[in-house]
Write a structure and sequence with these properties.
The complex is a heterodimer of chains A (225) and B (302).
Chain A: E1 2-11, E2 14-24, E3 29-33, H1 40-47, E4 55-60, E5 63-64, H2 73-77, E6 80-84, H3 95-105, H4 110-123, H5 139-151, E7 157-161, H6 169-184, E8 188-193, H7 196-202, E9 205-210, E10 213-218
Parallel strand pairs in A: 3-8, 3-9, 6-7, 7-8
Antiparallel strand pairs in A: 1-2, 1-4, 4-5, 9-10
Helix pairs in contact in A: 3-4, 3-5, 4-5, 5-6
Chain B: H1 2-18, H2 20-56, E1 60-64, H3 70-81, E2 86-92, H4 94-104, H5 109-118, E3 126-131, H6 134-148, E4 153-156, H7 158-203, H8 206-215, H9 219-256, H10 265-271, H11 273-297
Antiparallel strand pairs in B: 1-3, 1-4, 2-3
Helix pairs in contact in B: 1-9, 2-7, 2-9, 2-11, 6-7, 7-11, 9-10, 9-11
The chains are: A alpha/beta (225), B alpha+beta (302).
Chain lengths: 225, 302
């Protein structure tokens, strides 16, 4: 269970998030929507411990994320898969190595890493591109690698922050379908996006943010501007 | 435990190879640093040689009374030889002194004529004494002579030589001090340049470090490959720098030998090759590994 308990974030007197109360149950698919600057990314960054709230608490399975010590943060982050708009792949590693990296940091044995990485490459449809470096992949392929890396440790939560922001419509649907599939396999998916068409076609829970405030929270919701 | 270490080493080597341009630049700067350090090491050898040479030329002469028996003088010579402070003694008999005097003044007929008029040999026998350490040993030897052989000694030129011994000692001390200070400053500068190059290397991959943190890598796991890369920089720079030094000193040695009081740079280099390689490895690896460790720190706070 993820709980945002009266969370506020202020940068130099400017309220980026204002008193957010939000609960996300395990295995849910939740879209967090809003215009650019609404506070979606800030919310996501707090969930992964990259930012601390100015007020309130972010709890994941009753653990206060902002209280996790720096040396324990890697262990927490291994339970969460993250996908970014700009992919954030390791440029000097191949597609295979990027996926394997997530498992290497968790100290899994070589054999297991090899088997799982190849399995993931098959799921994301990039088995034949495994030896390519990010610079040799298209935007859609890079994002698929990023999703592959995010699910490598079978996380309980997958956070996708504008994962389709840099993609064309065909690749966008590839990625969305992949996220739906991952959710169906039992992973909580949090999708932060401002892509109206994608959100409206999902038919899942939609949380709307506007100028840092939570303005709507609807099951089978729509992105209303 | 062993799996991550193996992975860290493998990743460090792969990153070094894949990031060739940056690796080359860093190794290049490190080679210059190590070359400068070795050059200072060699300069230290040259300075020591100059100072030792000057010290070796310093001696004091003990002149005996004209009627002193040669056996007595030779006995004193033996006594002096037993002293640990004495490095060497040369006995100059009265006839030898006369021969040397004549040789020295062979172009000065007036002096030679005066000598003939005297009729007998007016010169006294003497001992030329060289000390192990002229600064501290000559006063002791002078006291020793004064105390034990005052009755047969006519004169010891210690007081006259004292000033020059002092000057040479002071020159040698100042040279050493200046050498150390200059070395520290210049070596400090080149180390700083290398450290900044490593910082730039790490800066160029700061985003990747952030990504690793977000994916759940521990600080130690992120640092590891960079430290391995730093170690590789140090080792490769040491190998290349040693070959460069070898070539440079081999080429320069014959040309500089006469300027350096016959000091052979190339021989000094080959005689100290293990220390030189050790010095470079320690500095190169420490600089690479520690530099990377420090430089990466600020990007691990995500």
């Amino acid at each position: 269970m993820i709980v945002f308990d009266k969370v506020s974030k202020t940068y130099n007197g400017c309220h980026v998030l204002d008193n957010i109360d939000l609960k996300i149950a395990p295995q849910e698919f939740v879209s967090i929507v809003g215009r650019s600057g609404a506070g979606k990314s800030t919310l996501v960054k707090m969930l992964i411990g990259e930012l601390k709230p100015t007020k309130g608490k972010v709890l994941v399975d009753n653990i206060d994320v902002s209280n996790i010590k720096s040396n324990l943060m890697p262990f927490y982050r291994r339970k969460i898969g993250i996908v970014f708009q700009d992919f954030k792949l390791l440029n000097f590693r191949t597609a295979y190595e990027n996926i394997a990296f997530a498992m290497e940091v968790a100290d899994l044995p070589y054999k297991k890493i090899k088997e799982d990485a190849m399995k993931i490459l098959r799921i994301i449809g990039l088995e034949d591109r495994k030896d390519n470096f990010p610079a040799q992949l298209s935007g859609g392929e890079k994002q698929r690698v990023a999703i592959g890396r995010a699910i490598a440790l079978k996380p309980e939560i997958l956070i996708a922050d504008e994962p389709t922001g840099n993609l064309d419509p065909i690749h966008t649907w590839d990625i969305v379908n992949l996220l739906i599939k991952i959710n169906e396999l039992g992973t909580t998916v949090i999708l932060a996006s401002h892509d109206k068409e994608v959100i409206n076609s999902l038919g899942k829970r939609v949380v709307s943010l506007e100028k840092g405030k939570l303005v709507r929270d609807e099951e089978e919701g729509k992105f209303i501007v | 435990m062993f799996t991550p270490i193996g992975r860290i080493i493998k990743t460090g080597c792969a990153d070094f190879w894949r990031n060739k341009w940056v690796s080359q630049a860093t190794v290049g700067v490190m080679i210059i640093t190590l070359f400068v350090i070795v050059s200072f090491f060699m300069l230290g050898g040259v300075m020591n040689n100059v100072v030792d040479d000057l010290k070796a030329r310093m001696d004091i002469s003990v002149y005996f009374k004209i009627d002193t028996d040669e056996d007595n003088i030779l006995k004193i010579k033996e006594d002096l030889t037993d002293l640990t402070q004495v490095r060497g003694i040369e006995y100059i008999s009265r006839s030898e002194a006369l021969a040397r005097f004549k040789q020295r003044h062979q172009n000065d007929p007036l002096i030679l004529q005066s000598l003939e008029e005297i009729g007998s040999n007016p010169l006294t026998a003497s001992l030329n004494i060289q000390a192990v350490d002229p600064t501290s040993d000559f006063p002791f030897i002078n006291q020793f002579l004064d105390k034990n052989y005052d009755t047969v000694i006519d004169k010891v030129n210690y007081q006259e030589n004292k000033e020059i011994i002092g000057r040479v000692t002071s020159f040698s001390n100042s040279t050493k001090k200046a050498g150390v200070i200059l070395s520290i400053i210049l070596v400090g500068i080149v180390i700083l340049v290398t450290f900044n190059t490593i910082r730039l290397t790490i800066y160029s991959v700061r985003d990747e470090i952030g990504i690793m943190r977000l994916v759940g890598a521990s600080n130690a796991y992120i640092r590891g490959p960079f430290i391995v890369e730093g170690v590789i920089y140090g080792v490769i720079a040491t190998v290349i720098s040693t070959f460069v030094c070898w070539g440079v000193f081999r080429g320069l040695s014959p040309r500089l030998s006469s300027m350096l009081l016959d000091f052979n740079l190339y021989n000094h280099f080959t005689q100290n090759i293990l220390s030189i390689i050790g010095l470079q490895i320690v500095i190169g690896v420490a600089l690479g590994a520690f530099g990377s460790y420090i430089a990466i720190r600020r990007y691990l706070k995500i």
